[in-house]
Amino acid sequence: MEYTTRGVCGQEGCRERRYYLENGLWFCRRGHQQEGRQVEEDPEDFGTQGRTSRVKKAAAEKATKTFRGRQAYRLFLHVYQLILWKQCYALVNTRGFPDQFEHVVRDLWGLWLGTFEDQIKEQDEPDEQPELFSSQPTQVDGPADAKPRIRKAKWPRMIDSISLCYLGAFLMRLPVSVGDFHLMVMRGDVPYLRVVRDIPRDMRDNLPPEFISILEPRRLLQAEELHTAVGDLVLLYHSKFSMKFPSVNWPILLYRYIKRLAIPIDVYPTVKKLQELLGLVFEYPGTIIGRRKPLELPELQLMSLIVVATKLLFPFDRKKRYPSTTKEPAVQVMDWNHWAEIQGRFDNRETSRGKIGKGNEVNVTEKDVFEMTPAQLDEYMDWYESSWLDASKPPSRLANLFPLGPSARSRPGTPSVEINEGEALDAMVQISTGQLKSKKVIPSKGSESESDTPRPGSSYARFRTESDLLDEARPFYETAAKVVGVSLSTLVRGVLQAENKITRWLAEQRKAEFLGESLGMGRARDSGDEMDVD
């Protein structure tokens, strides 16, 4: 009989420690039955009571999800190409760009993509052994073991994807400007902010952190930086592929700028005349020597001429100038204070109706939250949900306690922002041009007193810095800078450079006239001497 050693029996003073199992009941060696649960014996499992079996799991190595080396570089370019396609898709299907727009951008990206092949080959592959991190100091290799430093690769940025889209529209002669693209990005019409959440999770998990940081800009996109990025891409295509870009579609842009500024259409022929005099072609330069100048941006060239033409026809000061006929454009007078009020109402058309305004959500601060109405809070949370929440993540139990309402994109009956803006712009132009008044006309008599009559264009005021701007001129300069997408100081410098060009042209004209008169007087004198000799 097989016994099992346990504790002392204790019944009737029994000190036995050995026990046996019989018919499912435990008995000590002296025959005392033990209290407890009965155990049913299985003939097939004889002798297996009390044994525990555990299956040992095979030790699996933890595979690193993050790619390194050339594999990571190629994955980043694939992700960047996916983002570029999403941006083109949004422009074609949401903003009404033609279908060929995607093909043009794809060809531009294909050319640029070929330049990264050599860059990828220059990069070293990572070591097969995993990198170990320790708090102990490592040994410093000597000069003999030092490896040559590899130049840090320059990869495309998120701002470059918007620049590629602009160049695609630019080559197709579409009437869009850099400022329009900046506005579309700020409004969320083009994927840019938090674009990482649109990348598939498996691709996102395999990207190294340094590439994730490229796809997540830490600062808001500035329109002037977008101008610079577009110019840099033009230089790249010119230097790498000898590609020459045409001039901007400036007749349409000129009309759009004049309409947005709500100034009389008489500025249009004046700008064309100034463009012919200065020989401006409104093209991006293929090469830049020295420091980049504001007038090297074609759209800024156009806006600078608009400002100059406006100052000639409708000056900001209150000096009296008298045209000679009623057909002159300068016979009209602009009330610039009233114009500034109209522009302010146009810019605040959405906030005046109790809304934050599309594109203004990203500029909301902590202080603004305390002053928001319930409707504005709902508008801001809808924007936050559609822009920042990652739908690819599985919902947590805690998140289920706070269900989300329908987002702004899914709500029916939302009016189009473009339609509202177009109607507001037409109304602003009608009000601005309707308040024009006429000046007193003093006909030209050709007498000596004619030179004492101040004419349009005389006493032209120049502003070298922002501090030199008149109170009436500052709102116009600020609005023009916002429309073209540059800072106020950049526009002031661009206008001053255009005015200097005009001054040099006038000096050359006066010099040519003076030389012509001198040459004519000399010929007349020579002919008179010949007559005396005869």
What's a concise summary of this model?
The protein is mainly alpha-helical and 534 residues long. The protein has helices at 70-93, 100-114, 116-122, 158-171, 178-187, 201-206, 209-215, 223-241, 250-261, 267-278, 298-313, 336-347, 366-370, 374-388, 397-400, 417-434, 473-484, 488-533, and strands spanning 4-5, 18-22, 25-28, 332-333, 437-438. It is 48% helix and 3% strand.
Q: What secondary-structure arrangement, pairings included, does this model have?
A:
Blueprint: E1 4-5, E2 18-22, E3 25-28, H1 70-93, H2 100-114, H3 116-122, H4 158-171, H5 178-187, H6 201-206, H7 209-215, H8 223-241, H9 250-261, H10 267-278, H11 298-313, E4 332-333, H12 336-347, H13 366-370, H14 374-388, H15 397-400, H16 417-434, E5 437-438, H17 473-484, H18 488-533
Subcellular location: Nucleus, Nucleolus
Protein name: RNA polymerase I-specific transcription initiation factor Rrn7
Domain Rrn7/TAF1B C-terminal cyclin: 221-388
Written description of the protein model:
This protein has 534 residues and is mostly helical. It has 18 helices and 5 strands. Strand 2 and strand 3 (25-28) form a beta hairpin. Helix 4 (158-171) packs across helix 8, helix 11 packs antiparallel against helix 17 (473-484) and helix 11 (298-313) crosses helix 18 (488-533). It is elongated.
